[in-house]
Amino acid sequence: MSEVVREEIIFEILDADVPWFTLLEDGTRDRNNIEHVSIGIRYVRKGKVFESLVNVATTLSSDAKTMANLTLEILRNNGLDSKRLLSQCYDGASVMSGRKGGVQTLIQEELHRKVPYVHCFNHRLHLVIMKLISEVPELKIFLTNVECYTYF
Predict the structure, then answer these.
(1) Domains (ranges, CATH) in the chain?
(2) Are 58 and 83 in contact, with CB atoms under 8 Å apart?
(3) For residues 128 and 120, is the Cβ–Cβ distance under 8 A?
(4) Among 26, 64, 69, 88, which lies 20 to 30 A Cα-Cα from 149?
């Protein structure tokens, strides 16, 4: 079923003659030390902004070269022309955002052109909230107490 949905999303993007898209990517490591990478794209169609999940992949290695190669391979395998890649949006982890060897840099080198990197707004918001919690003792106590109830 996921393959049918993915094909429909890709068909919509290709059929709509979307001239540009932004790459969205985030990963998380599970207990077995496997990196789960979600890759999505943001595009404009008929004046509306859409975000679609294109693929969820797994990898044992999460170094920048592996991640960049995986990303470009997924774009190719889904028929998404990297010439239409307008920008990249990741979290602020150095493996993704690094100017010297990060995924964003390796993708630009592979494509032989500038593809601006944007730090994901949701990740920035999370960093602000975590900083706030660490500096307001009442919030820290409250959230610790709330967390206790999630185990029931």
Answers:
(1) 2-119 (3.30.420.40), 121-152 (no CATH)
(2) no
(3) no
(4) 26
* Strand 117-119 versus strand 35-45 pairing type: unpaired
Contacts of 84 (CB under 8 A, 6+ apart): 18, 19, 20, 21
Amino acid at 80: L
Torsions phi, psi for 39 (to 5 deg): -125, 125
What is the pLDDT at residue 152?
A: 54
| pTM given for the model | 0.75
Give the tens place of pLDDT for each residue, 64-122. 999 999 999 999 998 899 999 999 998 877 788 888 999 999 999 999 999 999 887 66
Q: Coil, strand, or helix at residue 55?
A: strand
Placement of tokens 């996921």 in the chain = 2
Counting Cβ atoms within 10 Å, is residue 110 exposed (0-12), middle (13-18) or buried (19+)? middle
Residue among 1, 9, 71, 68 nearest 43 (CA): 9
Inter-residue contact 25 to 96 (CB < 8 Å): yes
18 token code pair: 């979307």
Instruction: Give the residue carrying structure tokens 């602020």.
Output: 92
Tokens 């990478």 identify what position? 37
